[in-house]
Amino acid sequence: MNEKHNIQLSINGSQYTADVEARLLLSDFIRHTLGLTGTHVGCEHGVCGACTVIMDGHAVRACLMFAVQADGLEIMTVEGLSEGPEKLNALQEAFREAHGLQCGFCTPGILMSLIPFLKNNPEPTEQEIRYALSGNLCRCTGYQHIVDAVLLYVERKNS
Amino acid sequence: MKPASFKYIKPESLEEALEVKSEYGDEIRILAGGQSLIPAMNFRIMQPSVLLDINMLDSLSYINLDSNKLRLGAMTRLMQLENDSVVSKNSPLLEEALPYIAHPQIRNRGTVGGNISHADPAAELPVVAVAMNARFCVESICGSRWIKSKKFFKGYFETDISADEIMTEIELPLFEDRTGWAFQEIARRSGDYAMAGVAVLLTLDNDNICNNARIVFLNMGEAPMDTNKAVGLLIGEVLTEELIMEVADLASQQEIDPIGGIHATANYQRHLANILTKRALKSAYSRVQKHE
Ligand SMILES: Cc1cc2nc3c(=O)[nH]c(=O)nc-3n(C[C@H](O)[C@H](O)[C@H](O)COP(=O)(O)OP(=O)(O)OC[C@H]3O[C@@H](n4cnc5c(N)ncnc54)[C@H](O)[C@@H]3O)c2cc1C
Ligand code: FES
Ligand code: FES
Hints:
The structure holds two protein chains of two kinds. Chain A is built from five helices and five strands; from the N terminus they run ββαβββαααα. Chain A has helices at 26-33, 90-97, 107-120, 126-132, 144-157, and strands at residues 4-11, 14-21, 52-55, 58-61, 74-76. The longest helix of chain A has 14 residues, at 107-120. By secondary structure, chain B is an alpha+beta fold. Chain B has three domains: 7-53, Uridine Diphospho-n-acetylenolpyruvylglucosamine Reductase, domain 2 (2-Layer Sandwich), CATH 3.30.43; 58-173, Uridine Diphospho-n-acetylenolpyruvylglucosamine Reductase, domain 3; 179-290, CO dehydrogenase flavoprotein, C-terminal domain (Enolase-like, domain 1), CATH 3.30.390.50. Chain B has helices spanning 14-24, 37-42, 78-82, 85-90, 92-97, 104-107, 112-118, 124-131, 149-152, 229-234, 241-254, 266-290; strands at 7-9, 28-31, 50-53, 63-66, 69-73, 135-140, 143-148, 153-155, 158-159, 166-173, 179-186, 196-204, 210-218, 225-226. At the A-B interface, strand 4 of A face helix 2 and helix 6 of B. The structure holds flavin-adenine dinucleotide and FE2/S2 (inorganic) cluster (FES) (2 copies).
């Protein structure tokens, strides 16, 4: 039962190899085994979106996958967004300027949901942005500033 | 770690998967998109001793159009269906229902076979399947068989699949000519399971007399709730405002069995079912007209 499975995967461009128990969630693997604590964990049943990561280009819930399933895949977490811990990418910068976060607990999941969305839809309407954000809960901002941040990013990107 | 321990098996082929499935029977669970199974395991509502991960079986992921049927491989992700022009052109009822299912992040993993096999009476695709008279292909080491959607859903989370079987294909017949469609639901928040929802199909003859109709509800009983009496009122008639009201009253008062919950009483669910039926009938009717 507690048999270990060897997995090899790429996270933020670095290769990792590990032996994991099958029941280890991808979210716990990322946080506890690899120490990449930027990916947050809220509900662990798919509702809050805090654990969202990008897997092979798509935003997915890291709490609804087992680490063993990520064998051979490419994952990006919030740590992979900018060039270094002291730097912000353009979307993060827009969040900072537009007050798109308060406590910041939801922010990594929100950013990881938005990156693929904005790639597929570079000029979204406010309505489309709200729909894209509907799978991520934020208990602080009331969402308005998050929407403003995305609009600011889109405006800068397209001007 | 939240889920209980289990043995993990990842077959490379359908044949191998079917063999493993027959060997372990009831002890084993298929892991498709995991978007219903893993939450249940995280809560330890479910503690399967073996998981059969069929995510490597690419042969079960396809969208094919063959003469008058749309064929979907069971492992096709919901997001693939949403972005597919064959689906939008040939199965507009399915296309209309997809964005109501959970959130994009969930649909990136969730599969059509998983959504149907899970048989949640509040889920969208079982209702779409029943409205469209879909059939499901299930396979075991002994061979394959087709199950009609009407016979497939047995009750809350219960289906006609036996312990040694895997669902491999969903077959959706295409609409007859002059068919209008509508899928409508009301949820408290975008992406939540709905308090009420309905799928409607209407087929009219050249004089606009209705000669075929389906009205199927979600979250109104222990399985998708098909309506016969209400549909009976429509057949042979031209749709009028009065008839639509009569049909909605009959369907919402006699043909559903909502149980109510903390977010909506059973009476409120009936009220929503009534309103949705009227809206969906009107929308389906106007779509027949537009397609002239
Ligand atoms: C936050 C959240 C909100 C959601 N909201 C909705 C919603 O509004 N509407 C909705 O419809 N769904 C909703 N879902 C569920 C989601 O759509 C699931 O993806 C879907 O119900 C199950 O598909 P899956 O591929 O993930 O299946 P899994 O979770 O992998 O499996 C579900 C069940 O089906 C069985 N199974 C899977 N595939 C097969 C097969 N090929 N043959 C036989 N048995 C099989 C499994 O063994 C398991 O018992 C939500 C999920 C979450 C986490
Ligand atoms: S922790 Fe994964 S969605 Fe909440
Ligand atoms: S900023 Fe606190 S939860 Fe969103």
